[in-house]
Amino acid sequence: MNQAILLESNADNIDFMIHGIFSIKVFGQEVWITTSHACILIVMAIMVIFAIVANRKLKKAKEVPDGFQNIIELIVEMLDKMVEGTMGKWAPRFVNYISTIFIFILMSNISGLFGLRPPTADYGTTLALALITFFMIRFNKAKHQSAKDIWTGMCSPLPPWLPIWAPINIISEIAIPISLSLRLFANVLSGTVIMALVYGLLRFIAIAWPSVLHVYFDLFSGAIQTYVFCMLTMTYVTQACETDE
């Protein structure tokens, strides 16, 4: 079994599959630690280290910021503006969560630039993120809307006493985590598959020029998919928080 985490251009057995690294026994069941787990831990470790360094730097923030402080402030300002522009008055409640998943998904998507298998190319990762969004929608809808408002929305565009559209609207609500997770997963996986084919089939002539493909599939497409996932999350949650009052 191939236990490689990195996608190296000179490897003889490059593929895009998820491989087991080692297994452990949990309640008598064999549980595998895979390349996806390893790559997620690497991404999380980088985020934690960056957060610790940034926190210490901001504790000693200068009135005239230097290079690293400028980067931190730029990232925070950009994320704050993005969340506020979409969620309005609800932004302060969700800015920390949206900023966290934005950075995590972006770093996961672009990790292919550094030879890692993107964690978001694993459906288990994208489904978990989409389920968090789904439960946030349900929680905030129950918190901010009455049962009557929820039922009226389910029957829309017809009156609540004529629930013909209710089954369709219920299906559309259930489809939210599926569509969110599949969109992110499929786009990232397609780039991973293409790059694996380029390196696996071309091998010795795949030198330097595949960097252009990495820029598109990992950087450009990865940034777009990150923005789309977070934008849809913010839109759904904002709609759940709004009432007719």
Mean pLDDT: 83
Q: Outline the low-pLDDT stretches.
A: 1-11
How many strand elements?
Answer: 2
- Number of helices in the DSSP assignment: 7
In terms of quaternary structure, the protein is single chain
The amount of helix comes to 55-70%
Order of helices and strands: EEHHHHHHH
Strand content: 5-15%
Q: Could you describe the 3D structure shown?
A:
- The protein is mainly alpha-helical.
- The protein has a domain at 78-241.
- It is built from 7 helices and 2 strands.
- It has helices spanning 35-59, 67-87, 91-110, 123-144, 147-155, 166-202, 210-241, and strands at 20-26, 29-34.
- The chain has a two-stranded antiparallel ribbon.
- Strand 1 (20-26) and strand 2 form a beta hairpin.
- The longest helix has 37 residues, at 166-202.
- The protein is globular.
Topology:
Blueprint: E1 20-26, E2 29-34, H1 35-59, H2 67-87, H3 91-110, H4 123-144, H5 147-155, H6 166-202, H7 210-241
Antiparallel strand pairs: 1-2
Helix pairs in contact: 1-3, 2-3, 3-7, 4-6, 4-7, 5-6, 6-7
Transmembrane segments: 31-53, 94-114, 120-139, 184-209, 215-237
Family: Belongs to the ATPase A chain family.
Main location: membrane
Short description:
With 245 residues, the chain is mostly helical. It has helices at residues 35-59, 67-87, 91-110, 123-144, 147-155, 166-202, 210-241; strands spanning 20-26, 29-34.
State the main characteristics:
single chain; 245 residues; mainly alpha; two-stranded antiparallel ribbon; 7 helices; globular; disordered N terminus; F0_ATP_A_sf; transmembrane helix; cell membrane; transport
